[in-house]
Design a protein that fits this description.
The structure holds 2 protein chains of 2 kinds. Helices cover 70% and strands 1% of the residues of chain A. By secondary structure, chain A is an all-alpha fold. The chains are: A mainly alpha, B alpha+beta.
Chain lengths: 413, 236
């Protein structure tokens, strides 16, 4: 039925099967849109947020998905910017289209959820008009929206590669012209993305009234600024690799050479190792020096359900273990270990974003204040699920109708 | 502002006066205290001991109007400059029509002095007629907080202008200080070393909440009880 749109020489699942999959995704997106509409109409009182937990599920999932979407900018940076000096990085060409699509869906999805998060969505544009240059959130607002535009520009030429669209000459010329200047956009995206990944860390790190989140730092940037950048560029390529593997499993085809996964594993392993070493140093400095200077002990920050297990899981299980696996050549040679390590890396960054958002607020600062537990409602979870379904939808459509993997034809004769 | 905890009876007249003066809205069901709007919250302190050693006290908590260098914890995080500190008066204000409701300022405040409007404000029928025309009501989806009755300062300045008095000579009393029957709340210009509040701030009994955080609150508490001093700044 849709054969004319499928890239020449590539096989895809029968349309009814694909339509059924789309139906499931549309149902989830519909559920999220309904929940989002209720939030916009009835206000945020339908959520689990309160005066204690000003930030909750929306911010956590936004921070997490933006970190996981960092594969787009970082792969672009390595491919367009660094491959001249390190030719082995040219291998990333085989996965760069997927990285761009993953980044595009992660950022646009996060922006949609961000609209629900603010109490006065119609005033969202005030962020540009009344911008407070001292606020980390201003940096986030500017960089995320600019980078989302860059991602759209990066995504357009991939869309124009579609068989039917490329047959239209003006579009074809436009698409190829964009390809020519893509390196410029990739490097611009790198600059913007480095900054906002950092400023998302700065959002928590500058809170000097919150000893759990607050960190000292370099110049105006707290250490969390740099840790967030590092954790994002470590987990982003891991997430892209995982998505690629999932598509391979579902389509039962090999889409990229094994060498691409090995290269990703090396990149993720090196960055994760550096990150986890710095994270451990940061945790020790925070626990032994910074927090005590405010009158807190490490044990004051952890109480069930936000117990020490979160710290252990984040640093050891989802940090030290995957870093060790990916740094050892034998670990990188076994698919189970590589993708297991990728999964743990992504889980670790999600836990980190949760901890810096929700747990940071659960800890009482005033001595006579109490611990609180945050439980999100359906109106928070549904838009989050819908955002993931939207990501899956765009990736599915892109895989089906666009030549995403340059080596697919050769690898699947 | 200086609040003498040893004088406070916990009658909450300050909190009620604040509520009435500033048109603070309330819900028919206020069972979820984490969503109540209370500009001046009353905290119950206790020394954790038993029987005859047991002691308790009340701690009224307005906005601390933090005086930390450059910015208060809440002002520099606001992405839209909706909350700003007037360096002349020291009052941390919140411009409600500019607030986008991101709640970053609430997250930044360790004193929980800021509340979010989770619902549209509403008052029972006759009460609508009793709202103060001098303070705007707040719409849903924005943050609000204690302003040290800033509108009273504006009134005092308007009067000073008409009377030909210097603007920096004006004085006023916020609703909470005015309502306190035991005169536990003293309000004035901390920058003026001859003011009563400045003298109280230097009193041996004076302390500030969470002083280790370097937020530099402009609200001082007074108590002769050591356990209260320790509680205000100790860890959990």
């Amino acid at each position: 039925m849709d054969k004319a749109l499928i890239p020449e020489g590539l096989r895809r699942s029968p349309f009814p099967v694909f339509a059924l999959w789309l139906l499931v995704l549309f149902a989830l997106i519909g559920w999220g849109i309904y929940a989002g509409a209720v939030v916009l109409l009835k206000a945020l009182n339908v959520t689990g947020l309160n005066d204690y937990f000003g930030f909750g599920f929306y911010i956590t999932i936004d921070l997490a998905i933006i970190a996981l979407g960092a594969g787009a900018f970082f792969s672009g940076f390595l491919f367009y910017g660094m491959s001249r000096f390190f030719p082995s990085l040219k291998e990333l060409h085989k996965i760069i289209n997927l990285a761009v699509v993953v980044g595009f869906v992660c950022y646009t999805g996060a922006l949609a959820v961000l609209l629900l998060e603010i109490g006065q969505p119609l005033r969202g544009w005030f962020g540009y008009w009344h911008a407070n240059v001292h606020s980390m959130l201003t940096e986030v607002i500017f960089c995320i929206s600019c980078y989302a535009i860059v991602l759209v520009i990066e995504f357009v030429p991939i869309v124009l590669e579609n068989r039917k669209l490329s047959a239209i000459k003006p579009l074809n010329v436009f698409g190829h012209s964009l390809h020519e200047v893509m390196a410029v956009f990739a490097l611009l995206g790198t600059f913007l993305s480095f900054f906002h990944q950092g400023s998302l860390g700065g959002v928590a790190g500058v809170l000097f009234g919150r000893p759990f989140a607050y960190r000292t730092g370099f110049f105006i940037w707290p250490w969390t600024f740099f840790l967030f950048i590092l954790s994002a560029i470590a987990s982003g390529p891991a997430f892209t690799g995982l998505i690629c593997r999932v598509i391979e499993k579902v389509s039962r085809k090999q889409l990229v050479d094994r060498s691409v996964y090995e290269l990703l594993a090396k990149i993720v392993g090196s960055l994760l190792t550096l990150y986890i070493i710095l994270k451990i140093i940061d945790t020790l400095y925070w626990a032994l020096d910074l927090a005590p200077s405010f009158g807190f002990k490490l044990s004051d920050f952890y109480r069930e359900p936000y117990g020490m297990w979160l710290l252990f899981t984040e640093i050891v299980i989802c940090g030290v273990i995957p870093a060790a696996i990916l740094m050892v050549p034998q670990g990188r040679q076994r698919n189970g270990l590589v993708f297991g390590a990728f999964f743990l890396t992504c889980t670790g960054v999600v836990i980190n974003r949760f901890v810096m958002t929700v747990q940071a607020l659960a800890v009482p600062v005033m001595p006579f204040d109490s611990w609180q537990v945050y439980i999100p409602t359906m109106y928070e979870v549904a838009p989050g699920v819908a955002m993931l379904a939207y990501c899956a939808l765009v990736i599915s459509l892109a895989y089906r109708y666009l030549p995403m993997f340059p080596r697919e034809k050769e690898l699947n004769p | 502002m200086a609040i003498d905890i040893d004088k406070c009876t916990g009658c909450m007249a300050c909190s009620i006066a604040c509520q009435a003066e500033n048109n603070v809205s309330f819900r028919p069901d206020e069972s979820n205290k984490l969503r109540s709007i209370t500009w001046l919250e009353m905290y119950y302190l206790q020394n954790g001991k038993q029987n005859s050693d047991y002691r308790f006290a009340w701690l009224p908590r307005p906005c601390m109007q933090c005086n930390s260098p450059h910015h208060s914890p809440c002002t520099f995080v606001c992405p839209v400059n909706a909350t700003v500190r007037d360096e002349e008066t020291g009052i941390v204000d919140h411009i409600v029509p500019r607030c986008i409701g991101c709640r970053y300022c609430m997250v930044a405040c360790p004193y929980h002095a800021r509340d979010f409007n989770w619902w549209d404000p509403a008052w029972p029928k006759p009460m609508e007629l009793m709202l103060s025309p001098k303070v705007s009501t707040r719409m849903r989806g924005v943050v609000e907080k204690c302003s040290f009755c800033h509108h009273r300062l504006n009134d005092a300045r308007a009067k000073a202008f008409l009377d030909g008095v210097e603007m920096n000579q004006v004085s006023y009393t916020p609703a909470c200080a005015e309502a306190c029957p035991s005169k536990a709340i003293t309000f004035g210009n901390l920058a003026d070393p001859h003011s009563e509040v400045a003298k109280l701030a230097k009193d041996q009994r004076a302390f500030r909440l969470l002083s280790k955080l370097n937020t530099e609150p402009k609200v001082y508490y007074l108590s002769s009880h050591q356990w209260i001093h320790e509680l205000a700044n100790s860890q959990l």
